[in-house]
Design goal:
Elements (H helix, E strand, L loop, with lengths): L1 H49 L5 H32 L2 H20 L4 H4 L2 H31 L5 H4 L1 H24 L2 H6 L4 H17 L6 H9 L6 H8 L1 H31 L5 H29 L1 H15 L3 H5 L4 H19 L2 H7 L6 H18 L1 H11 L2 H20 L11
Helix pairs in contact: 1-2, 1-3, 1-5, 1-7, 1-9, 1-12, 2-3, 2-5, 2-18, 2-19, 3-5, 3-9, 5-7, 5-18, 7-13, 12-13, 12-16, 12-18, 12-19, 12-20, 13-14, 13-16, 14-16, 14-20, 19-20
Length: 433
């Protein structure tokens, strides 16, 4: 009888881990799709619709500021959902975070512009963008823990990759949806109502995500912890009192990921279309090519993290990112679609390489009782530092100093993350239970 029990158990585990990997991936893919369609809309239509009556440069700056609001909200979402995730479990909070993001995104799709409701339009837009930040702030930490706490021995980096695949896939769907609209709608139709379609489509995707998430069970690591001791009353207090150093280092290690991504997408799209005069459909197609490189780098970097350790992979990728800042001015400023596509591909490949190990590294920095709060907060604090104002700062640097200064911004972000990783200890062999 025992001869047959082992294969049956193995098959059960294979099915379970596959389902968990898919559940951690699909949620982040949907939530990042929601998050990215706003970033793309900022680069194309948000300014004229919600901030009319000013010159295009001022509209772009105002739109970029609304973009940054969500990054200020994301740590609050991480703290809110992390608190309950560490007290009552990962599953319930993951369902709630998906709902918050989905409702906020869908409502942006039906929000009237400034011409209909005046100042209330940008005010409500900021509120809903804040809601997006709250939802995404709770999403990543839970998805990363779901994968890491279920991962088989020696494969935590590989399983931690699946939440990291969500952003490139979500971005590909976001870019693809706007690209598809550009093929069938003229510019007037797109600005009048077409841009709203990707936001409204979020409602369908959220239903799919909820169906998958509701079928999950609690992670064995958390279930074991709750069976042996009471959850801490205030995870944030324990985190700040006993785990402040890994929190800060984890946040700083994330800075380069955010800077690479949002400079390469939101800022570059705005600069390419408005300053270089590249047609929007063409630039979106270039981004579709580039994001494939990000998706390709993700499993490679995750595998290397399990084989060689998180620190060596992050140090090599971060050093390459630092050098890549010197490519921004000559390649993006060339105006050549081929050179720009090559530059975007390099930057997003490096983003995938620096981002993939974080799915395992950040959960490994914290003990079970504060892991949701710690990993999610570190991840989203890095967003404030590396992404919240990245398009705005890049726009200002480009206006007053030129593209070389934007490249310097990328290199500085990489240097900050490199220093943080150098101050960390290797976490690959650390037990989560």
């Amino acid at each position: 009888m025992s001869e047959h029990a082992t294969p049956r158990f193995a098959r059960t585990m294979d099915f379970s881990t596959t389902r968990i990997a898919f559940a951690s991936f699909i949620g982040t893919a949907i939530e990042f799709y929601d998050f990215y369609i706003y970033g793309l809309a900022v680069a194309m239509v948000i300014g004229p619709i919600f901030f009319p009556g000013s010159d295009p440069a001022a509209q772009a700056l105002n739109a970029f500021l609304t973009f940054g609001i969500a990054f200020l909200a994301r740590p609050l979402g991480a703290l809110l959902f992390g608190h309950f995730g560490d007290k009552i479990g990962r599953k319930t909070t993951l369902v709630a975070s998906l709902l918050v993001m989905g409702v906020s995104t869908t409502l942006i799709g039906v929000l009237p512009g400034h011409d209909l409701i005046g100042w209330a339009a940008p005010a409500l837009l900021c509120l809903l963008r804040f809601g997006q930040g709250i939802g995404l702030g709770g999403e990543w930490g839970g998805a990363a823990l779901l994968a890491a706490e279920y991962a088989p021995a020696g494969k935590r980096g590989w399983f931690g990759m699946f939440p990291q695949l969500g952003p490139p896939v979500g971005f590909l769907f976001a870019v693809g949806s706007f690209l598809l609209l550009s093929q069938y709608l003229d510019d007037t139709q797109f600005r009048a109502w077409g841009w709203r379609i990707p936001f409204l489509a979020s409602a369908v995707l959220v239903i799919v995500g909820l169906y998958v998430r509701l079928k999950l069970t609690e992670t064995p690591v958390f279930a074991k912890a709750m069976a042996t001791r009471q959850p801490v009353k205030l995870p944030l207090t324990v985190l700040l009192t006993h785990h402040a150093a890994p929190l800060v280092l984890g946040a700083l290690a994330m800075v380069v990921c955010y800077a690479l991504f949002y400079i390469s997408t939101v800022f570059s799209l705005s600069y390419g279309v408005t300053t270089l005069g590249i047609p929007r459909p063409q630039f979106l197609s270039m981004l579709c090519v580039a994001v494939i490189f990000m998706a390709a780098a993700t499993p490679l970097s995750a595998w290397a993290g399990d084989r060689y350790g998180r620190r060596p992979v992050l140090l090599v990728a971060g050093s390459a990112a630092l050098l890549s800042g010197f490519l921004l001015a000559p390649m993006l400023g060339s105006g050549s679609p081929w050179q720009i596509t090559a530059f975007l591909s390099i930057e997003l490949f490096l983003m995938g390489a620096t981002f993939a190990p974080m799915g395992a590294l950040l959960p490994e920095l914290f003990p079970t009782e504060v892991r949701y709060t710690g990993a999610g907060t570190a991840y989203n604090l890095g967003g404030i530092l590396g992404a919240s104002l990245a398009p705005y700062i890049a726009q200002q640097l480009a206006l007053h100093g030129g593209l070389a200064w934007v490249g310097g911004y990328v290199s500085t972000a990489a240097a900050i993350s490199l220093l943080a990783v150098l101050m960390m200890r290797e976490t690959r062999d650390r037990e989560l239970a």
